[in-house]
Amino acid sequence: MLEFAILGLLQQSPMHGYELRKQLASVLGGLRSISYGSLYPALKRLHKAGLVTTVEPGPGELLPADAPPLTGRRGKVVYTITAEGKERFQELVSQAGPEAYDDGGHFGVHLAFFRHTAADVRLRILEGRRRTVERQREGLRSSLGRTRERVDRYTLELQRHGLESVDREVRWLSELIDRELTESAPTDREHRDGTAADDGRTH
């Protein structure tokens, strides 16, 4: 997930490690906190695989004003995605199987880079995520029904809160899916109209 997010950000522009960490925090949100201890090993793996290159600017180049004092020399290194890195990112962004939606963290990263994702892949990921969350909802409902009489009111409220959160996610996913279907409809209609016109000219 981290390497996917790094490649996605470097796809947009080269970055210092410090700026990359800030952008990762924005992309991943509350999913996880990115430390330099996890970021730099990931960058090292990507560099070793030929997916990113590094450039060390001259001594006169300064770090951002708000960079922490312990960022050090490595903070001056600029990371750039390679052609191989772009190909790898396209492979990752095109994945639409369970690895893209069963885990909430992976789904969140895929969603962050949906603008680079084909419409049919976006739809498959959203529908897969909705199925996953609906299964979670059924499990929570079943658990709530079994334990309602055996737990204290605080535990019961916690279970209800979890169920409400899952309900909200299902509704949110349904709205995203409806939007995807609505936005893709004109293209599908134009394709059908164009096909019909071609058939008419053929005959």
Plain-language structure description:
By secondary structure, this protein is mainly alpha-helical. It folds into two domains: 2-93, Arc Repressor Mutant, subunit A (Orthogonal Bundle), CATH 1.10.10.10; 119-188. It has seven helices and three strands. The protein has a three-stranded antiparallel beta sheet. The longest helix has 50 residues, at 153-202. It is globular, with a radius of gyration of 23 Å. The chain starts with a helix and ends with a helix. 19% of the residues are buried. The model is unreliable at 68-74 (pLDDT under 50).
Low-confidence stretches: 68-74
- Please write the CATH class name of the largest domain: Mainly Alpha
Adjacency order of strands in the biggest sheet: 1-3-2
Q: Any idea what the radius of gyration is? A: 23 Å
Q: What's the CATH superfamily of the largest domain, by name?
A: Winged helix-like DNA-binding domain superfamily/Winged helix DNA-binding domain
Largest pleated sheet: 3 strands, antiparallel
- Total strands: the figure is 3
**Helix fraction?**
55-70%
Basic shape: globular
**What is the average per-residue confidence, as pLDDT, rounded to a whole number?**
82
Classify the secondary structure makeup into a structural class. Answer: mainly alpha
InterPro entries: Metal_resp_DNA-bind_regulator, Tscrpt_reg_PadR_N, WH-like_DNA-bd_sf, WH_DNA-bd_sf
GO molecular function, one term: DNA binding
Organism: Trujillonella endophytica
Keywords: DNA-binding
